[in-house]
Amino acid sequence: MKSKYTVFGLIKKHVSHFPEKVVALFEKLKIGFLQFARELNSESKVQLITQLLDWTRDDPKSNEKIASLLNKYIAQRLIENTTNTKDADLLFKVMQIMPFLSDNNMYKLSNNTILANDIRFLPFFIRFIKVYFLFYFIFFYQNIFFFLDISVSNLSKRGMNIGKPYS
Questions:
Q1: What average pLDDT score do residues 124-148 get?
Q2: How far is it between the farthest Cα atoms of the chain?
Q3: Keywords, A to Z (predicted)?
Q4: Assessment of whether the complete model's pTM goes beyond 0.85
Q5: What is the pLDDT of residue 159?
Q6: In terms of Cα–Cα distance, which of 155, 153, 154, 101 is closest to 124?
């Protein structure tokens, strides 16, 4: 385990100023990164997330990619392993740094009774509900207008003067 921290220290020293190289390195070493992340305790995982996001904050594209990797390999496990208030506090810190995490994992969050009953997580649930219903609203009305357009087109082809002024 100590050698992995040494490797992480070398990465910090030589690669941390190049966000695209950080992303490329972690994409290439996904399996090793996953094993490394599994061995960490919750506090170390939160520190790792904040450090990697800090390294890539200047490049939005790299930041989005590294956040996706962190969500897939670390953050989901944090949600699954939250069994007490200390873990909930750490997860809350992560969600403040990566708010989009809540959109991807709301089902897992809502199934965890500790997180579902914690009032601090309420804004994340509300945000998810707003986004979900906005997409539902857009999808529903887009389909209605598509159907109405087809109906009007079919009626006008049959010789009915729908939508055309009388002459």
A1: 75
A2: 87
A3: Membrane, Transmembrane, Transmembrane helix
A4: no
A5: 57
A6: 101
CA–CA separation, 37 vs 54, rounded Å? 18
Tokens standing for 165? Answer: 């002024």
Displacement of CA 78 from its chain's centroid (Å): 14
User: Read out DSSP for 12-35?
Assistant: HHHTTT-HHHHHHHHHHTHHHHHH
* Confidence label for 38 from pLDDT (cuts 50, 70 and 90): confident
Q: Which amino acid is at 28?
A: K
Q: Rounded to 5 degrees, what angle do the CA atoms 122, 90, 5 make?
A: 150
Q: Residue ranges of the domains in the chain?
A: 2-157
CB 118 within 8 A of CB 83: no
* 70 exposure class (CB count in 10 Å sphere: 0-12, 13-18, 19+): buried
Tokens read off for 57: 């904050």
**103 pLDDT tier (thresholds 50, 70, 90):** low
Residue ranges of alpha helices (H) inside the chain are 2-14, 19-28, 30-39, 42-55, 60-70, 76-80, 85-97, 100-104, 106-111, 113-116, 122-157
Q: How far is CA 44 from the centre of its chain?
A: 20
Please indicate whether residue 12 or residue 75 has the higher confidence score (pLDDT).
Answer: 75
